[in-house]
Here is the input.
Amino acid sequence: MGDCDIGVVGLAVMGRNLALNIADHGFRVAVYNRTVSKVDAFLQEEAAEKPIVGCRTLQELAAALKRPRRVLLMVKAGQAVDAMIAQLLEVLEPEDIILDGGNSHFTDTERRLQLLAERGIRYIGTGISGGEEGARYGPSIMPGGSAEAWPSVQPILQAIAAKAPDGSPCCDWVGPGGAGHYVKMVHNGIEYGDMQLIAEAYLLLRELLGYDAERLAEVFERWNGGRLNSYLIEITRDIFTVRDPDTGQPLVDLILDTAGQKGTGKWASQNALDLGAPTTLITEAVFARFLSAQKAERQRASSVLSGPEVQFRGDGEAFVDALEDALYAAKICSYAQGFVQLRMASEEYGWGLRFGSIALLWRAGCIIRARFLEHIREAFDRQPDLENLLLDEYFRDAVHRAQSSWRYVVATAASFGLPVPAMSSALAYFDAYRRERLPANLIQAQRDYFGAHTYQRLDRDGTFHTDWLRLRKPWPDGSS
Here is the structure.
């Protein structure tokens, strides 16, 4: 039997950094990569003089590990994970544990969990957020799957996780099945929304107020010192201070305006549609990336389609303050939608998610880490079965204070033809959610008219259908 505490399979940047992080916390690590030269290079460079053992085959990896063996997969999501699991089944034994630290779809995790359980292997779908730096020095970790395996991996995962300001690790058991990867998926969806909201604020500051990179950095520095304090606001501030070494221009101004994606935001939107969860802001953020990718088409359209001239004559500083309010209120709606989706998924899949605990996992290490998350945890402490964050007193009052500024910003953007789909979508969500009565009664009447889909009434119980064509008022021109 070997003496290594855990094995890491896959030595791309995330795998290498996690292995180094684990070793730095006193654990002995065995590493394997399909391309063996990467193992050799890793041992000669970053891993030199660390308690890390290189393995050239999976048989060597299995032999190097203590029982029950713990193997962390850091390979590309999809078929590569299935292929690696098939190979590991040849060298692992019952009670051994596989952790998938990639961005796997939660349904794949549930399928693999069942497959491996039949072989006696325990499986943990492990959402990991924080990028390269987080992996090296402390990510947010969201494990879920085989609950009986959690005590065996808990000391390692909580040791390497980011630590919140109170010292607690940003890693705890999320739930059964694919819950870990699901929570990471929604985290990434919220991340899409946050990034789009910040991009829209940047657009308004640049196009309406004419702020250059230096002024933009000053605004984001001020915002980061207040209620918008977050990793994404912080790095946005930093981005505006970087100049291209060749031209001396702000580097951000030279970057092509097409945003990429790896699919997790799209997955969150697709699943929201399956659940019937109104996660409108995340979906708008995904669509905004799709539209940005149509660069050539947008260039052609820009020479054909016109809009209003942008000539803002208001108080610039007052608009910056209003924009801060709008950004905060829209952010509240974004997280409210994300936690509604988590609640609906927990009910649909029987996971029993603890929402306050999930907010704690995101306080440090992850991309959406923010001061704001402490208020979410407090909201669920006050009311564990809270239906929507907007109903909590803190968030209710915050949105009420901000909404006049929020409406002013969205209306101003619309009046000058500047697209703010996420910010305006959040406002539409808020306005729809706060209304007791929506125009869906007309939609249901239309459905019953053309498809006999029936309807319910406000004044009596039961299900009804009307012969609308027979009862309709005849028009003088005889039209039908």
Remarks:
- Strands lie at 6-9, 29-32, 52-55, 70-73, 97-100, 122-129, 140-145.
- The longest helix spans residues 316-349.
